[in-house]
Amino acid sequence: MKKLLLVFLFIVTEVFAQPQTDVVIYGATPSGIFAAINAARQGHSVALVEEYKQIGGLMTGGLSFTDFISQEALSGTFNEYRFRALAYYENKYGKNSKQAKDCYFGVNAEPHVTELIFGQMLAELPFIKVYTQHRISNASANKNKQGESKIQSASFVNLLDNKAVTISGKVFIDATYEGDLAVAAGAEYRIGREARNEFCERYAGHIFSKGGQILTGGTGEGDKKVQAYNFRIIMTDSIENSRKVEMPPNYHREKYLPIAAVFKRGKVKQIFTQSAEGILRVQPIANRKADINDIKNAPVRMSSLGKNYDYPDVSPEVRVKIIREHRDHILGMIYFLQNDESIPSEIREDAKVWGLAKDEFTDNDNFPYRLYIREARRIMGDVVFTEHDTYQAPHSIRSVLNPNAVAICDYALNCHGVSAPGPVYADMTEGDFNFIPQPFQIPYGVMLPGKFDNLLVSVAISSSHVGFCGIRLEPTWSALGQAAGLAAHLSIKNGVSVTKVKVPELQSLLLKNKAKIIYVSDVDADSPYFEAVQYFGNIGFFHDLYPLEQVQIKPRTIHKLQYMDAMEYHNIHPEKPLEESLANTWIQQLPASQQAKAMALHKSKRWNRGAFLTALFQLK
Question: Structure pTM?
Answer without folding.
Answer: 0.95
